[in-house]
Amino acid sequence: LFAGTADFFYAADKLEILPPMRGHEIAFAGRSNVGKSSLINALTGRNALARTSHTPGRTQQLNFFDVGGGKLVLVDMPGYGYAAVEKAKVAAWTELIHSYLRGRANLARVYVLIDSRHGIKPNDAEVLDGLDKAAVSYQIVLTKSDALKKHEIQARLDATAAAIARRPAAYPEIILTSSRTDDGVTDLRASIARLLAE
Ligand code: GTP
Ligand code: MG
């Protein structure tokens, strides 16, 4: 699946102009700067497919990427929880994110990225609440594992597993990744392949 081509094909900043649904869609959600765009690049093996930045708030639209010629669409979402953006803009983003997540029939799963250094923050928990309520299947992906020591990683995995244990729409397995070292990227690809085979 990931051996072939991956191409950007659509950017939406309004729900009314989402691309037509084709194949399975998988969305990458998470706080600003958590590493969504970087992980999409690592997954597809394309350095600059999704635009990344040191400055939070880089991705401001829903960006759609085709993988494997119509088999799979990866959606890079704008991050949430970035304080330095105007209130009106935050409201517009939140609405776009939530409506997309609730209303997209071909959305197979949302990968919710959590910075492994920080764990699940209150605004992450709010997003998870929304996904649970809407019964949108999601899975937690811990990012930036390269920034932690081994024992810190285990503690973060345990705490995260405990935090999602009673969440109805959460997939129990947590995937640990680093886009910098490519750790866990193979696991994430396998997870996606299994999902598409279901
Ligand atoms: P927004 O689009 O603003 O929501 O951010 P994003 O979640 O798409 O994050 P992005 O991929 O742009 O990465 C944000 C910053 O984190 C960049 O400076 C990346 O270099 C850094 N980063 C991403 N992945 C990793 C990782 O695995 N390890 C480390 N150490 N840094 C990473
Ligand atoms: Mg981004």
TrEMBL record:
PROSITE patterns: G_ENGB (PS51706). Residues 22-198 form the EngB-type G domain. Its cofactor is Mg(2+). Keywords: Cell cycle, Cell division, GTP-binding, Magnesium, Metal-binding, Nucleotide-binding, Septation. GO terms for biological process: division septum assembly. GO terms for molecular function: GTP binding; metal ion binding. GO terms for cellular component: cytosol. InterPro entries: G_ENGB_dom, GTP-bd, GTP-bd_ribosome_bio_YsxC, P-loop_NTPase. Coiled coil: none annotated. The keyword Transcription regulation does not apply. It holds the Pfam family MMR_HSR1. The keyword Magnesium applies. PANTHER family: ENGB-TYPE G DOMAIN-CONTAINING PROTEIN (PTHR11649:SF13), MSS1/TRME-RELATED GTP-BINDING PROTEIN (PTHR11649). NCBIfam families: GTPase_YsxC. Necessary for normal cell division and for the maintenance of normal septation. Belongs to the TRAFAC class TrmE-Era-EngA-EngB-Septin-like GTPase superfamily. EngB GTPase family. This is Probable GTP-binding protein EngB. It comes from Methylobacterium aquaticum. The gene is engB.
